[in-house]
Description:
Number of helices: 19
Largest sheet: 8 strands, mixed
Radius of gyration: 26 Å
CATH class of the largest domain: Mainly Alpha
Structural class: alpha+beta
CATH topology of the largest domain: Serine Threonine Protein Phosphatase 5, Tetratricopeptide repeat
Number of strands: 11
Amino acid sequence: MRKRILRGLMTAMLTLALSNGVIFAGPLEDGQAAYDRGDYGTALQLIMPLSTQGNAVAQYDLGLMYANGRGVSQDDKQAVKWFRLAAAKGVVAAQDSLGLMYANGRGVPKDYNEAIKWFRLAAAKGVVAAQDSLGWMYANGQGVPKDYNEAIKWYRLSAAQGNAIAQNALGEMYAIGRGVSKDYNEAVRLYRLAAAQGNADAQNNLGSMYVIGGGGVPKDYEEAVKWYRLAAAQGNADAQTDLGLMYQYGWGVPKDYNEAVKWYRLAAAQGNATAQTDLGSMYQNGWGVPKDYVLTYMWLAVGKNYLIAVTSEMTPAQIELAQKMAKRCEESNYKQCGEPSDQNSSSATTSVPMQSEGGAYVVSVIINDAITLNFIVDSGAADVSIPADVVMTLMRTGTLKESDFLGEKTYVLADGSKIPSQTFHIRSLKVGNKVLENVNGSVASVNGSLLLGQSFLGRFKSWSVDNTKHALVFE
Length: 475
């Protein structure tokens, strides 16, 4: 339930009536319109003078600009200053925003008691987000004694107004029987309402209800996969882990260890301990990845799970290496979870194992230190080529950003035909212990394959495929 407090501030300006019923128009309205269309300079020119003259709504809007760094340099202390002025005059959106600043420790020391004070003022006026936050505070005993009945009260008020976060939270209370009698049917009803609004936590919870069955919905693995996939595509680490599990055991989908490893990696990179442990298990058994006890030990250590004994299969040097790798992985916030930096030499010869997949041999490639995918080595491809659906997944998870895209380029295919394709900049590609930065990539059709082309291969002194050992060899 942690996300209840970590929600973001509003990004759109709010035309707000004060308690006396006066609605400001003119320059304020023009400033808000400029903000909403992205003209932040004009918005600032119109809103700043009104704020200094004491216009409460303009003060809230200016606080929002400072909080989000729109038209001004991002400055939480300035945001708190203007939110406080507006909140003291009864602007309920400012009261909610000030509560968030205290709850998250932005611009002020974290202070749940102060957060509660401001959330309560806004919640009493019907601000749905503040009601939800107040429910979270009572459910978790932050700033107030833990009180599930009081949490339910505020969640219900927010959920009744259509707040998806509160609907999901209330569903969790019914599923657990916390503050209310356990009721899976009511939990499912609330999860559905939130999931229909795109709430990833609710989509994941709904998927889990279909896995369990027997309460609220029948057991249905295919339906579970559907909801897990929706949540996983939004970057929900729990859903990514659950989706990996479905692929690992073939529940609702054909068993596919490579796909399981893909989803475990995405979740592990977000710090999900279950996914990290599961990834260790995949390396221990050689499922979807080459069997590797060093990486098994590393992921089990990072996931704080030592139940599976692997040390009997390892040398002291391997254990020491795995411990160094685990430390490096944690210190880098799960961004560098391969070999230690002193192993990343690009000058020595490296042999990287390949594995058979769908009649072709593929090699594991780590993209932007975040996700591992299996590529076909294709010297005929000009660039690294990634199908459009995979590109979309990379964008949703933040592995690729809009700023990485370079424009359109025309490619000549083997049959002489020409096709246009979007190109993008890959910050780093890692194969084995070889890391290259600033590699060109292109978007292929959804039915295309992941291809490791010349924009990567051509930057080595030499490379070859050892067909006897089924390995890619770099120098």
